[in-house]
Amino acid sequence: MSLKYQRRKGFTLIEFVIVLSIGSFIFLSLIHFFLYSTLELKRGQLKVRLQRIGDLCMEEMARDIRRGAWADINPSGDRIAIYGSDGGILSIFERDGAGRLLKNGVDFIDRQTITVKKLYFEPQGNGIKNTVSITMVIGEQMDPNDPTDDEE
Predict the structure, then answer these.
(1) Has this prediction a pTM greater than 0.70?
(2) Which backbone phi and psi does 132 adopt, to 5 degrees?
(3) What is the DSSP string of 88-123?
(4) Which of 125, 121, 135 is nearest to 74 (CA)?
(5) What are the tens digits of pLDDT across the range 82-134?
(6) Which of 15, 93, 135, 137 could form a disulfide with 120 if both were Cys (CB 3.0 to 4.6 A apart)?
(7) Alpha-carbon distance 127 to 138, whole Å?
(8) Model pLDDT for residues 37-76, shown as the tens digit of each residue
(9) Cα separations (Å) of 19 from 14, 26, 27, 30, 54?
């Protein structure tokens, strides 16, 4: 009597575990890629939004500076008062302690999630009328206790 080896059809448990682990690795890689792409898209949209807001603020400040007869910049460079030809104040731009950009004492950006991290005015040229360099860094308002906020 001879014993014949019978070949069974189907997968062994080890083959199933290997296929399952490879499939899980591929699936998790795709999930990670999707989540990372979504995060980068949101960051890009935020940067575009902040750039637009910054451009609008800079245009408004430049327009007021050009309209004025002269400007007075405080020594720390974070406040500018623009005067008309009659000596009256046209506009005052400044950054308050909470990081808000103020025009004439009112929140200029009027957004709760935007903060002005840096605002600096510097006179330029040799007595040229109303030539001012403006440096403004804006960003998303973060939790002050969050150590991941990379303040510039």
Answers:
(1) no
(2) -135, 135
(3) -EEEEEEE-TTS-EEETTEESS--TTEEEEEEEEEE
(4) 121
(5) 888 788 888 888 887 777 788 888 877 765 556 777 777 776 655 545 567 77
(6) 135
(7) 30
(8) 999 999 888 888 888 887 888 888 888 888 887 778 887 7
(9) 9, 11, 12, 17, 52
